[in-house]
Design goal:
The protein has 221 residues and is mostly helical. The protein is 80% helix and 0% strand. The two termini are 16 Å apart.
């Protein structure tokens, strides 16, 4: 746990925000890889991605921003008087940054051709590993979290359930909602497929793995 004195240190705070922003960009690349795979994007992005296939009102990143606003509202309701409004304000800004980074990441790998199923599956797995790493780095930055992860943390805090398990539950919920949207408006599962289901289970599990490896390294030191 980071001591309060360390948190107030300007240099330490800058380093932590840089670490967090690095995690933010890495997570956006994970989403981009998952989307490029064509087997269904990452669970947390599946709803905005599915909606972006149905409506051109906003970009993929724009719908992701709208979901973030919903998740921020949920945090305020869940935590009630214990809500940290400074953190909420930071989350709001970073959520919009993340939305634009997601659009940027998708643009950066736009030229990559992923056609054969083995390559699609590889890209899906890479997306899971990269996304989990980005989320884990954000958590280690200890300055803020994206609204979706912060909402999971808030629910974990109130219910006493493990954060990783809460994440897996909501990932599955996002997939279910995305599937309904695709079937109703597109008549097929386009925004969500087998890759989304695998990611729902895999990302939370990989985060657990990162934590275990980190704990082992810290203990050895």
């Amino acid at each position: 746990m980071v001591k309060d004195k360390e948190k107030k240190n300007p240099k330490d705070l800058i380093q932590r925000y840089l670490l967090f922003l690095s995690g933010l960009f890495i997570a956006s690349m994970g989403v981009a890889f998952s989307t490029k795979a064509g087997l269904g994007t990452s669970p947390v992005a599946s709803v905005p991605y599915s909606v972006s296939l149905v409506s051109s009102l906003f970009t993929f990143g724009g719908w992701l921003n709208l979901l973030s606003i919903t998740q921020i509202t949920a945090q305020i309701i869940i935590l009630k008087g214990k809500c940290n409004y400074v953190e909420i304000a930071i989350q709001t800004v970073l959520a919009f940054v993340y939305g634009y980074l997601t659009n940027l990441s998708c643009y950066l790998i736009r030229e990559i051709e992923v056609n054969a199923y083995p390559m699609q599956f590889l890209f899906m797995l890479l997306g899971c590993v990269i996304l989990a790493l980005g989320i884990w780095i954000q958590f280690k930055g200890a300055v803020a979290m994206l609204p979706g992860e912060a909402m999971n943390r808030a629910i974990s805090k109130v219910t006493g359930k493990r954060y990783e398990n809460i994440k897996i539950f909501f990932d599955i919920l996002y997939i279910a909602v995305s599937a309904v949207i695709c079937l109703i408006f597109l008549g097929k599962l386009q925004g969500v497929r087998e890759g989304s289901i695998i990611a729902a289970i895999l990302v939370g599990t990989i985060i657990k793995g990162y934590n275990k490896v980190f704990d082992i390294i810290v203990k050895k030191q």
